[in-house]
Structure to design on (273 residues):
């Protein structure tokens, strides 16, 4: 039986960066059993003492931290070493190396990435725009968007749109329904936004849709989950994408993050043409 570890994620900010790094780290180990405990906005030695004391009461404790204030980071490191608790700083060496490379002294400000600058307000505007244009709403605003996602039901259009919005991309997503035509404005030869078609394996879509129908307890959707009908939907969507020469992404085995990364790359290629 595998040992279970108590993983303490300690951050002087929101913990978002650390959580993402840990997500990538743990994905490399198939048999890693753990309990995750998150501590955010840690900015005093007293707060660190409480965390260390809790670690001492648990077996197999591990600390991962992102603390940019040098003195506090060293305090945590020293405390952990004295109590034999494995402790790993995620940003410390990177900040030091970058400081040497740029020949600049780092500010060591907690939450420095969360300043209310132009990029922040751009992301907020993109999120508001994307939420207002979800699922085919307000297609008359197509030229105001950065990205337009097309795809049949359950091809991750909405979560991908929201993720892109958090990266500052105003995104419209439009569901493809067999009985409905796409907006005429999409057929224009010179479109400002990047149009991308999403598709997935019919078998995968059928499984996802069946689960959704079960959750909704709706049995009045026979063609929605029918594999042959879905195959036809996907085939027709591919024909549409090819007709207008829109780039496509197969999302069958892709996470939202991977799909979004591919979309951003396509946008960059179009921008640099």
């Amino acid at each position: 039986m595998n040992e279970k570890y108590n993983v303490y994620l300690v951050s002087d900010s929101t913990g978002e960066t650390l959580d993402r790094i840990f997500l990538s780290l743990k994905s490399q180990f198939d048999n890693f059993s753990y309990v995750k405990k998150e501590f955010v906005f840690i900015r005093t030695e007293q707060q660190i003492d409480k965390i260390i004391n809790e670690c001492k009461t648990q077996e197999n404790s591990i600390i991962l931290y992102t603390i940019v204030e040098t003195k506090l980071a060293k305090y945590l490191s020293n405390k952990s070493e004295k109590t034999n608790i494995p402790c790993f700083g995620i940003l410390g060496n990177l900040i030091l190396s970058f400081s040497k490379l740029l020949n600049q002294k780092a500010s060591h400000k907690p939450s420095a990435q969360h300043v209310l600058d132009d990029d922040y307000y751009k992301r907020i505007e993109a999120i508001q725009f994307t939420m207002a244009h979800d699922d085919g709403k307000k297609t008359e605003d197509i030229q105001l968007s950065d990205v337009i996602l097309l795809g049949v039901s359950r091809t991750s259009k909405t979560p991908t749109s929201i993720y892109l919005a958090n990266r500052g991309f105003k995104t419209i997503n439009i569901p493809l329904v067999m009985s409905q035509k796409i907006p005429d404005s999409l057929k224009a030869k010179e479109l400002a936004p990047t149009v991308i078609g999403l598709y997935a394996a019919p078998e995968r879509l059928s499984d996802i849709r069946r689960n959704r129908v079960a959750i909704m307890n709706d049995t009045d959707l026979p063609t929605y989950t029918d594999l042959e009908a879905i195959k036809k939907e996907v085939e027709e969507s591919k024909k549409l994408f090819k007709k207008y020469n829109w780039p496509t992404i197969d999302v069958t085995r892709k996470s939202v993050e991977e799909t979004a990364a591919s979309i951003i790359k396509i946008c960059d290629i179009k921008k640099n043409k």
Observations:
- The first strand starts at residue 4 and ends at 11.
- The mean pLDDT is 90.
- The chain has ten helices and eight strands.
